[in-house]
Amino acid sequence: MSPETAKQSPVAMLESGPVGGFIAAAHVGKRLSFQNVIAFDMGGTTAKTNLIKDGEPQWAHGYYIDGYASGHPMMLPVIDTVEVGPAVEASPGWMKREHSR
Fold first, then answer.
1. Where do the H-state alpha helices sit in the chain?
2. Hey, which of 33, 53, 58, 97 has its CA 20 to 30 A from 75?
3. Which of 35, 15, 16, 17 is nearest to 26 (CA)?
């Protein structure tokens, strides 16, 4: 994404780290002759995944900022980012608070 595009639509940069990894996974998969790949991004408190099908990351028609259950909808085409991690329950702050009781 060019700087000009980012200035016009900064919301399109959400999840740019995992999405960059998903695009790279599609590229590496093609180079290794794998057209279908499960891409996985592990962060500090969450894990995200995307299915690479026929050599291309899958797209979604929108995204929920802060998660599907309680997040805010962003309705523009995005590379599908599915959160599979434990979220808040595994964060160091939560663990410290829960185990200090």
1. 3-8, 16-31, 92-99
2. 53
3. 35
